[in-house]
Design brief:
By secondary structure, the chain is α+β, with helices and mostly antiparallel strands. Helices cover about 35% and strands about 25% of the residues. The chain is globular and about 60 Å long. GO terms for molecular function: hydroxymethylglutaryl-CoA synthase activity.
């Protein structure tokens, strides 16, 4: 049975800050942000958007009535959860009006969560071929103003519909995994901002990539020549390039040129959104599919997922015939074109707006947020979500 990605879409907030201007405000040479880490714009989530609304908006853009009826499993990968008990998936299920006879759960392992969700989805569909599974990767990356990690923040979500006989990509069965208990990045339960040992995390990202890549090659017999492109989890776009460069000498000059050229396509969305944690790898994949118009059906795409703490996985997919007919390129182009730049001063104000933590009720102004689905406030310790079209 062929199982894989039937639909894929993303959503990001309507606000962003220019990384050149942020660098100037932080007394940093702009090239350190735009070239050194490879970021140009950073999406900013207003207080009316959280991990739930970002994911719901991403899914809203791709699901039709038939999908909503057939989806019987929603798996939400995030490290920006809004409740320690109720899963973010249940909120999205309600906001989208999905089939009530469904299982809804939230999974967590740093930026690896959506990949774990996809593997869970494949198992479910193998047992229930008529089912569809909605996989969500949604996060808001927060390190704090004037911190070392500030330039690698971002916000957004990717939604993937996983099914049998998928229209876009068949996910191959071979994969390679590696886990080690390390402290390269973490966010204690009491903190709304992450902590990171940046140099160590970069080293581990590359180390894990090399371990899973070598194991994958041994299991499958594949090499660089068998891949049209390799997509990476991108906390910042230079990170994936650093990992790719460590294996390029294993191929020919033609392999090197092809993989480097296609990496440029795969990083474009990410460099204009920033880090979205669990959705980052799949935003990279989506960028490649949307922007590289001559990718041929039958092409094998490699996928490297890394979640700090840490879990790494390498797996692959094969593009289906006529896959481009099932992409949402125009929708994604419109999303980027409709965004509004804010000044660094405005960004700092927006970043500093937070919900009360003492149980105080609050009503939020959602008219300024163009998203269909918004957070409208908190009442009785309960977040109040609004789907403007329902």
């Amino acid at each position: 049975m062929k199982i894989g990605i039937d639909k894929i879409g993303f959503y990001a907030p309507h606000l962003y800050v220019d990384m050149n201007k942020l660098a100037v405000a932080r007394d940093v040479e702009p090239a350190k942000f735009t070239i050194g880490i490879g970021q140009e714009k950073m999406a900013i989530a207003p207080i009316t958007q959280d991990a739930v609304t970002l994911a719901a908006n991403a899914a809203f853009g791709i699901l039709d009535a038939s999908d909503k009826e057939k989806i019987d499993y929603v798996i939400f990968g995030t490290e920006s959860g809004v409740d320690n008990s109720k899963s973010a998936a249940v909120y999205v299920h309600g906001l989208l009006g999905l089939n009530p006879h469904a299982r809804c759960v939230e999974v967590k392992q740093a930026c690896y969560g959506a990949t774990a969700a996809i593997q869970m989805a494949k198992g479910h569909i193998a047992l229930n071929p008529e089912s569809k599974v909605l996989v969500l990767g949604s996060d808001i990356a927060r390190y704090g103003l004037h911190t070392g990690g500030e330039s690698t923040q971002g916000a957004g979500a990717v939604a993937l519909l996983i099914s049998a006989d998928p229209k876009i990509m068949v996910l191959e069965d071979q994969n390679s995994l590696y886990t080690d208990d390390i402290m390269d990045f973490w966010r204690p339960i009491y903190s709304d901002k992450a902590y990171v040992d940046g140099k160590f995390s970069n080293e581990q990202y590359i180390l894990f990539f090399n371990k899973v890549w070598e194991d994958y090659k041994e299991k499958t017999g594949f090499g660089l020549k068998d891949f049209e492109a390799i997509c990476y989890h991108l906390p910042y776009t230079k990170m994936g390039l650093k990992a790719l460069r460590t294996v390029l000498d294993q191929g020919t000059e033609e392999d090197k040129d092809r993989l480097l050229a296609n990496y440029e396509f795969s990083k474009t969305y990410n460099k204009n959104i920033g880090n979205i944690y669990t959705g980052s790898l799949y935003l990279s994949l989506l960028s490649l599919l949307d922007l590289k118009e001559d990718l041929e059906a039958g092409s094998r795409i490699g996928l490297y997922s890394y979640g700090s703490g840490a879990v790494g996985e390498f797996f692959s997919g094969i593009l289906e015939a006529n896959y481009r007919e099932h992409l949402y390129v125009n929708q994604h182009t419109e999303l980027f074109e409709s965004r509004r730049e804010v000044s660094v001063e405005e960004y700092e104000v927006i970043f500093s707006e937070t919900l009360p933590t003492d149980g105080t009720n609050v009503e939020l102004e959602i008219d300024h947020d163009p998203a269909v689905i918004c957070l409208a406030g908190v009442n009785g310790h309960s977040r109040q979500y609004i789907n403007k079209l329902r």
